[in-house]
Design a protein that fits this description.
YaeB-like fold; five-stranded mixed beta sheet; alpha+beta; globular; 3 helices; single chain; 5 strands
């Protein structure tokens, strides 16, 4: 099963901040998003559930320094059909996102 990824406005804003002048990071992020859409629990991602204020969200590693925060949601399309998606919430360093 391939997961649909949906960008939040916060995610888009932080991606633009990190990729503006860093082509290598942009390529890393594209690869991580590809893996996430195929298997959110791929060991390379180090996916784990979050606690406290971020309870209900999960985190995975983009690289040594940056993390991607996301959640699983059920959305309903205009025809009333429900589907599971991944909401991309934000990215940042360990200290920025936790």
């Amino acid at each position: 099963m391939s997961w649909e990824l949906i960008n939040s406005s916060s995610f888009v804003k932080t991606v633009n901040k990190y990729t503006k002048h860093d082509t290598q990071f942009k390529n890393e992020l594209i690869e991580i998003l590809r893996i996430l859409s195929e298997n959110p629990y791929e060991p390379k991602l180090k996916t784990h559930k979050l606690k406290g204020a971020l309870k209900g969200s999960l985190s995975c590693s983009i690289n040594f320094n940056l993390r991607l925060i996301f959640s699983f949601e059920t959305v309903t399309d205009k025809f009333g059909k429900k589907r599971e998606v991944i909401i991309l919430e934000t990215i940042g360093t360990h200290y920025e996102v936790y």
